[in-house]
Amino acid sequence: xxxxxxxxxxxxxxxxxxxxxxxxxxxxxxxxxxxxxxxxxxxxxxxxxxxxxxxxxxxxxxxxxxxxxxxxxx
Length: 74
Hints:
- The chain is of the alpha+beta class.
- The protein has one domain (13-64): CATH 2.30.170.40.
- The chain contains two helices and four strands.
- It has helices at 52-61, 63-69, and strands at residues 13-18, 24-29, 33-39, 45-51.
- Strands 1-2 form a two-stranded antiparallel ribbon.
- A hairpin with a 5-residue loop joins strand 3 (33-39) and strand 4.
- Helix 1 (52-61) packs across helix 2 (63-69).
- The longest helix is centred in the last third of the chain and has 10 residues, at 52-61.
């Protein structure tokens, strides 16, 4: 299974590792993914793999507004 946020679809980014001699080497920047159980507005409980940024958005705005913004159907 890929390491992507199930709600927003965000994946890993590309960054550079910079040595002391300033040589740049490509490296992946992984998301901080967490597995959470979320209660949907219709009462269903769903396990989601979401990033910590998405968890903060859910706690601030609520799950229904995040689902509506990202056009996710459950």
